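Q: How do we represent a protein-ligand complex in a form that can be generated token by token?
A: Start from the inputs.
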Amino acid sequence: MCPPHAEVVAMPVDLRSDTVTRPTAAMRDAMARAEVGDDVYQEDPTIKALEMRIAGLLGKEAALFVPSGTMGNQLAIKVHTRPGDEVIVGALSHPVLYECGAAAALSGVSLAETRGAFFSAEDVRARVQPNAYYMPRTRLVAFENTHNRGGGRVWPLGLLDEAVREARSHNLATHLDGARLWNAVAATGTTAERFAQGMDSVTVCLSKGLGAPVGSVLAGTKSLIQAARRLRKMWGGGMRQAGILAAAGLYALDHELPRLHEDHARARTFAKAVAGMPGYEIDVETVETNIVNVRWTHKADVRLALEMLRDARVLVSSLGPGQMRVVFHRDVDDAGLGRAIESFETIGKLLGMVSS
Ligand code: TLP
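Then emit the structure tokens for the protein with TLP bound:
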């Protein structure tokens, strides 16, 4: 009970990321009931069930449960390359920005960014290094779907197929960072297997829109997964009775996957409402899933807007000068959406008065 004078403070509407969700009571219940074993001995039945299920969903032979999307991506890079090699990645992709330079540190490879988040066969062709002894060897092309910094947009299937085909024609390996592949599936109706077609390896996350507390899965051929299992242990990611975590993933595939479209609908409602307000610019037609990139157009520093939003108990993340990212997920309901829209409006108006 609150003391009589205590102020009732509203729970924050946390739109910084879809990673902030807390497991629901039903998910915790599924975790508590999970059958477990020692996964380093490959004796955890729940992990095995999750790995088989995800391998099946992605049309791959085998899969490996890993603690994070970062580990999934980095294991893939390590397995596909040798030190000194180069990896073609879309502009502003996750391994470029948010994986602590791990590709260089752990695999000794350089990342060659294309001009855009999405790239064509021609872009791949232009990025493949010529075969000269003094050039890095291009070995891998990595795709990100949906693209995080690209505002959660989905790879157009035709473009994706073309780029994959081009990669194959140069004997390059292909990796899909599908941290939010489930959102791409929910937005388009295209299956995960179809998006993963032609990919030698795929990472998917359970801890983003699906709301699990921990976990990602890397999928590929049996031999790729065997090599990744060894590396996972080497990097300290071998887990024991982690079936308790895998159970959250299995639960999420059954109960959270079918509701992702609700997050997308809220993201669109938010984008449409805020796009017309003073201080903000949003390309509404590019809001395809649960992420909204917002440009801040007032002269006042965007950090001031972020601080005022925080004071109003609405949390969003900064994407650097003049840009914010707003992410919808299972813990933001219609009331939270309403509070976010209102706070954006108030702060846009207020800072408009002081900036003009
Ligand atoms: N993205 C996080 C941050 O790291 C930026 C977020 O809040 O969006 N690939 C993609 C496309 C991702 O967006 C993320 C996480 C990862 C990989 C890494 O997953 P984790 O956090 O499990 O290592």
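The pocket of TLP is lined by residues 17, 19, 68-70, 73, 94, 98, 144, 148, 177, 179, 205, 207, 216 (CB under 6 Å). The chain has two domains: 13-19+259-349, 21-256.
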